[in-house]
Amino acid sequence: MKQSTKIIALERIQILIKNAISNSRTFPKLAQRQADLAKKISTRYRIAMPYEIKMNFCKKCKNFIVPGVNSRIRIGRTSLKSIRVTCRFCGHIYRKVIAQ
Ligand SMILES: [Zn+2]
Questions:
Q1: pLDDT, tens digit, 9 for 90 and up, residues 38-60
Q2: What are the domain boundaries of the chain?
Q3: Residues 69-87, buried b or exposed e (16+ Cβ, 10 A)?
Q4: Taking the complete model, does pTM exceed 0.90, yes or no?
């Protein structure tokens, strides 16, 4: 596959996710569809989703989650600096350590 195809595909993924995030509050169904489409493009062209985009998908139910809309983000209260992301669809919580 041509390298330029991958670049265009990645660009489309980023545009779709950006739109999905801005639509998530007003048009949740549309946002979900745009996120699904972005995911399909990434599998079709075998592109690894950039980390900041992967963060928008629940690791358990694979739903598209937007912070403040359908996921809750909390700072951990322990000495270990971390954030907790709670998915509002399945309640799955995952931790992300941000500093040691
Ligand atoms: Zn979930």
A1: 999 999 999 999 988 999 999 99
A2: 3-99
A3: ebbeeeeeeeeeebeebbb
A4: no
